[in-house]
Amino acid sequence: MKSKLFLVMLAAPALALAVPADAQDVPPPVAQTDEQSALEFRAEQIVALVNGELEPQEVFSEAFLNAVPPAQFAAISAQLTGQFGKAIAVESLDPPGGTRATLAIRMEKAIARGGIAIDPTSENRVSELLFQSFDAIDDSPAKIEADLANLPGEVSWWFGAIEEPSAPVIADRASEQMPLGSTFKLYVMAALARDIAAGKRAWGDVVNLGDARSFPSGMMQDWPKGAAVTLETLASLMLSISDNTATDTLIDVLGRDAVLQAVVDSGHSSPDLNDPFLKTRDMFLLKAGPEGRLRTYREADSDVRNQILEGIDEPVLPMSTVQAAFSGGPVALDVEWFASARDLAGLMRFMRRTADPRAFEIMAISPNLPENARSNWTYAGYKGGSEPGVLNLTWLLTDQQGRDHALILSWRNDDANVDQNALELIAQRMLALPR
Q: CA quadruple 19, 24, 30, 36: dihedral positive or negative?
């Protein structure tokens, strides 16, 4: 999975949202006054636009409208108003003139912060609109838990200091085993970083890419056979862009059993769920390959599963077949990598005690937090994972007092795709809770 947390590009809806205006809270859109700059005028229009009270064609540039599908704005607006209430007013615009500024919109339950730009060659229409973060107003664990409970499917979460596992800030269903998507790559990193800390390997060790390649995400599937890469390069691509071929190469270097041993040693409550330890290519070929093989694998014990994986490359599957297999929604979500939220918090604790420190620098390449949220922590490391019907978000965070925290959310829906933006918005609210 690769995502930009809390990065919400607002686009125009094909039709307005059915949210009634409140004359006391949401003033109706007005024409530009002589005292207003063009930027101020457009910023005020965003309030009405988010509430569905103004047509996007009146606000956005043609280039913007062409670039962003109309339905996307309707979906995002529904998420924003659903979680944070109606947009009320422009909280701040800095600078108030010119063509580009930081923008804050006050909503009923949050301050939305981001940026806006206008295009003077297009009647000063809005050419960029970006909300990067949301500062909750009068939020509480109970409100957050209610919103999480309303998500379709199964959701689990845990947020707290990793050395105080029995006293989280907020948690529920945290012991339930959930599919992880690419978050499993943290276990690969744990095995690698432990070997390096023990002197068995070095970050600069060089390996050559073999014939077997996985499928995207990533870039290494397109690199030439025999390309020489260091373990550090493989680990960095595995976590920063979720490169699947880099991941599989590391599993080959370490061995499946060594990675599974790291799962066990980290205190995982049900390590047998990950035996045998799948490579990403295995998962793709199982789900996109013959139905009979997938059915047998799902019903088999670990010995039979290992036998199936030994012949997994037959038949050869083209990229188009793999893409088609995942285009219709969730597929066999029991063929995955599993951990509970508590297991992942325990993994962070295990890595702090056993991993070479370079591992945490690599985890922080893509922290997936907006700048204002990162300012509350001295360190932020991240890995997330997804496939249709599965989403996991996992952070390791260090506060100003040097205490490590973990924020973990997992969402599973066997019947439909899950909404990444919805869970990421809730994650930001959780980070704002008092600790």
A: negative
